[in-house]
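[Automated response] Your request has been received and processed.

Submitted sequence:
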Amino acid sequence: MHRDRIRVRAAAAAILLAPLAACSSGTSPASGDAKAADDRPVTLSVTPKGRQAAAGEPVKVTATGGTLTSVTVTDAKGRRLSGKLGSGGTAWTSDRKAAPGTAYQVTAATRTKGGTAGTAKASFATADADKVNKVDWRPGAGASVGIAQPISLVFDRPVKNRAEVEKQLKITTSSKTEGAWGWMRDWSGKDRVDWRPRTYWKPGTKVTLNAELNGTDSGSDGGWFIRDYTTAFTIGAAQTVKVDLDNHQLALQRDGETVRRIPVSGGTPGGDKRSWRGTAVLMAKEGTINMNSETVGLGNAYDKMVDYSMRLTWSGMYAHAAPWNSAYFGNANRSSGCIGMSDSDAAWLYGQVRPGDPFEIKGGETKGTVAPENGFGEWNLSWEEWRSKSALR
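Generated structure:
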């Protein structure tokens, strides 16, 4: 009897233990499956995508099944698009936009949920631009210029998206110079944007322009920019040319001191031959050139070779040698609009000045103030007037 009880108890214990053993044995495969899932390779989703993707948008890389530790996006020439990872580490966005007509390779360093490091790759290409916009700029790289020299960009095609373009224009100066961009229609009829300091540059300032335009759409009829532009230059000595047309005198000042006074003859009063007043910036030293009155709307008044020509406006005002007018130097204005002086004085002044030097011109008998687009006349606007010409205001 006692032995039968023992057998019953043993059988009952075996029945109770059986389901417990079944539950325990089922746990190990489930745990293994989860670990395997955590170590599956990370997959990438990239936009733009395809082989004819639209340009003009940032590149976005998203990870599924893990995180991104770094992302490199390069074009066929090895140029990289910089970018930033999001806070969760699952998304990366480029700082710059994808440019048209460009193939990109995306390489991402990844980490699975289980902690395993890996690499994932993708690629895409953008469609070619239907229209391309280009830029001509001043001053040139490596130039030493005067204290009034603006940075000036003239565009081949119209710029409707002015704010988008202006955002891509980066100015760096060694003296933390305050300045602003201003838009205008150039004398040539093209769209133009200039960067002018609030006041004249500090001598010795080093200036760099990085126009990061590649991948920017300039708008309808303008087309895409397909490259970046850069220039670096230095500000030279503090020189100003003071021109008093009422007293028929010119004075070169350097660091606030008058270096030399020169008798001159300005534009003839009473008509279209009058000179401009205000601040005109020396645009270029053009040497000996042919001056033809028909090119500036003065009929057949003159057609001659002129020495030591210093261009001040697009409309044709120069400072130059004018020996044929010698009887009027210092006592009367009898030129066709330019500021004339003797051969020797012109030769001396030509050797002293540099592009970017301001000519500050005053006089009662003039035809008005130099306009911003007529050369570099932006200095004739107040600071607030100039700032209002920015597309980002």
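Summary generated for your ticket: Helices lie at 2-38, 162-167, 343-352, 383-387. Residues 43-125 form a domain with the Immunoglobulin-like fold (CATH 2.60.40.3780).
If you did not submit this request, please reply to this message.
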